[in-house]
Fold this protein.
Amino acid sequence: MAVRSTSEALFAGALTDFPPSDALSEQILDAAREQFMTFGLRRSTVDDVAKRARVSRVTVYRRIGNKDSLVQACLLREYRRFVVDVDDAVAALPTVEDRLVEGFVAVLRHVREHPLVGGLLRLEPETMLPFLTLESGPAFLAMRAYLTDRLREARLAEGRPASDPTPVAELMVRITVSFLLNPVSCFALDDEAEVRAFARRYLLPLLAAG
Amino acid sequence: MAVRSTSEALFAGALTDFPPSDALSEQILDAAREQFMTFGLRRSTVDDVAKRARVSRVTVYRRIGNKDSLVQACLLREYRRFVVDVDDAVAALPTVEDRLVEGFVAVLRHVREHPLVGGLLRLEPETMLPFLTLESGPAFLAMRAYLTDRLREARLAEGRPASDPTPVAELMVRITVSFLLNPVSCFALDDEAEVRAFARRYLLPLLAAG
């Protein structure tokens, strides 16, 4: 299965120009995303994606590549959208506390509204569970690095001591991923007011502790 | 696979007399535990366990039952040992903060020293991952209920307001399970001094927030 190497390719390396972002590539990737979310990764073929995108199989190969490349391109595009969404949601907020709370709200909203990962998790858990747990290393480190960078910038901007925010960032990523993996909860995380209250009450004390 | 129904049978119902705790049953379950940890659940048979325990196949069926019952008995015995270990580690401590810190240390020590769950997770992730994530409901609720009860008793004993400790208990279970599921970490959780420092620094603020 391609997911392990995809995870490493996705998150271990530097940002690249892959996937291309021209209109035809976007059309193929939109089709691939819908195909994967509907039928899972395992049973989907390049032919299925080509048909759904109303292009030829050769066009898919020329623009994106084989099936592994399609999966990688979809997940990478999703991850970039995720980062942009979260950054956009918090950019104008004045304090790190506000940005953390609204960032957490944006993360859960993104997972709800763009459910590639969550949808595949329910459709094909045997493929997605290893990618989100035992083999999550590169993706987990990328998320932690993203949040660590944001927390470090905030500390510097606010003139606070520059202690390493990695532990706090890691804990927050763990809590967030946990809600995807273990869905039974006493928190109603599909309710944005409750998500916000959760973050204020339980994430901000971790920030202070770090 | 038996794991889903096992999880429900294990954790949803009341405590029962199963498995029996006489010497012969213990001998069979010790053999089953070793068999499962070495060869996984899927490939192990009642015959394998009987041979390892040096008893007849009929004795295994009479004392414990079929393979599903063996798996259930092993996990249930492990869970009870886990609860007793954690309770023993914290019983003499004066404050809820101390009990929480040493309880977390005891949980991680138990996972390290009695690695049925962790061992099976590495040996047979396709069986164990659903049991620890999407289908973890009953086990997850049992752990949360255990910790909720302990926190509630502590609040009552210390004369503090009896607000519901369920949210804090859930968060702490989530963080603990996360270290089993996502092993890449900046924390050295095989070092007890570091585990203790982690709990003081990051779990106690959650207790105060709850």
